[in-house]
Amino acid sequence: MIRSLYIQNYALIELLDITFENGFSVITGETGAGKSIMLGALALLLGQRADTKAIRQGAPKCVIEAHFDLSHTPVNSFFQQNGLDYDDECIIRREVYATGKSRAFINDTPVQLSQMKTLGELLIDIHSQHQNLMLDNEGFQLDVLDILAHHDKDLDAYKQLYNSWIDAKKYLQQLKDDAEHNKADEDYVRFQLSQLMDARLQADEQEALEQEEEMLSHAEEIKSALFQSAQMLDGDEQSLLQIIKACRSSLQNIGSVYAPAAELADRLDSSFIELKDIADEIAAKEEEVEFNPQRLEEVTERLNTIYTLEKKHHVDSVAQLLEIQADYEQRLDNITSSDDHISEQTQLCDHYYQELLALAAKITKNRSSAAKLVEQSMEKNLVPLGMPHVRFKVEIEPRKVPDNKGMDSVRFMFSANKNGQLQDIASVASGGEISRVMLSLKAMLAGEVRLSTIIFDEIDTGVSGEIAARMATMMDDMSRGGLGKKANDDYQVISITHLPQIAAKGKVHYKVYKKDNEHETVSYIRRLTSEERVDEIAHMLSGDSISEAALQNAKVLLGLNSKE
Q: Which residues, in sequence order, are CB contacts of 441 under 8 Å at separation 6+?
């Protein structure tokens, strides 16, 4: 529950630092005094997006900070999942700068706004007047039944199964679309693949063919150059090898009388051997080279086939052509096997659907049981609130197609009159009736959702007198942990009200007011003493001129002895 709230430089609030108690508390004040401003600041702690216009004029930033007691609130898993340190005391802080920047903190650790919003929803339920419109929201009505049905595991399993079914249906449709598209292109794909396969392409053949073509195109020139080189090295007339051989003999002849000559002769001998080997290899190459017009034509034709395919498919290598060929093979395989794939996926969709229907039936059964509890509880709660002939019914109708919440279409049906026809509650209930219905729903759910703090913003709209007093009693009971339960310190209900009957029921009474100075208007809030409560409630009863009768009436409402 919220233990304290600190607000600095937010709208008309310059500085506010207030502590809150457990149990049932009330906040009163004139219209425009700043009650909604305080709620707006609190909403920032619950993840609402910030508006720089809310920053007090001239201030660089606004700060909203709240201290929470988590000892009776099951939020440990949130802290574990988000890697945050858990303690029974939790501080949530929001800072909004005039520059537009915003920062959020949980126990002084910076967090994302979405994390702050998730935690806020686990800690506080703020019921404002516009939330009465939720009565016409089928999602809200289903949530009421699901809370009472206690089937969270079934709902989680259903949602996972539903998502799998939706994904399977999407993939099935994709297979069908692809099959339709591919079958329209089947002749084209077959032709392109046939052309590539007929070419019998090999990954490295292009480079080898280009080299061979170059050689065949210059065969006569190459053969002539090789022949001349071979003749110069080892021909019949005065070849290089003959000269080296004669030189070597001359040096060997003087080797016995001149030692360096023998060494030089050996070196020439080595050179002779290497050059002889070169000459032999050149002669062999010259024999291999042959001008072959037929082979040149074959190579040129093969290269033209490759170049034509590369140009057609906008690539520049055989390797890329082979990739295209593999792609066409895969496309053709998909075309020929698409019916099998579609059949398999259809079976999978049907399997998910049947499982979905079975789980949805279980959820419907649970909701039907919860619906009876809602009907009984709502009639029981609404009768004391001035609806002696009220009838409340939960209609559950099957949907034609499952959605992410199940197979149920839900409507809350209502009649406040003895012989009135049951109709959709949002279309027939008055403002005051809707307020009482929402309060009764909140009272019914308070102990189920384990929310330790509930704030009602003028839930008393459209009611007065004895009905308001009974609504106050219901909120007081909620602060004790639920209707009919013994008092404890685990719950906190705060009501912002204009009605003295409700204000008088509060265990603690806060007043919001504003003051004008020379430059601005500033809002404040403070906790009232017992004497101040009498004056405040008397003021709510009679207006600015507090009469003695109003004071005595206020004491009666507060349960004080009127003679004191």
A: 144, 378
